[in-house]
Design brief:
With about 90 residues, the chain is an alpha+beta fold. It has one domain: Recoverin, domain 1. The chain is built from 4 helices and 3 strands, in the order βααββαα.
Length: about 90
């Protein structure tokens, strides 16, 4: 299966985040890191962005069930988009 790379405008459109927010979250370790495509070009692995989005949705749903107003990530936990494993993938 081919890997699809998303450029910044596509990542912004999918996530609804601004450029500065994306890069701030990358610095904090809260967003997938881009891959280098050349000297002045980067892109994001589509599967990692999709996984990150699914995790945000799941966290929001869980928190609403628990009566919290927004998602609070666990400190020290490593998101599946960093481990390379997709949820629901038994490989």
């Amino acid at each position: 299966m081919a890997t699809t790379i998303l450029r910044l405008p596509a990542v912004k459109a999918r996530t609804g985040l601004s450029r500065s927010t994306i890069y701030a979250r990358i610095s904090n370790g809260d967003f997938p890191t881009p891959v280098s495509l050349g000297v002045r070009a980067v892109g994001w692995v589509e599967a990692e962005i999709n996984s990150w989005l699914e995790q945000q949705i799941d966290a929001t749903r869980r928190d609403r069930l628990r009566g919290r107003s927004h998602a609070v990530p666990k400190i020290g936990s490593q998101p599946s988009w960093q481990t390379g494993q997709m949820e629901g993938n038994d490989e």
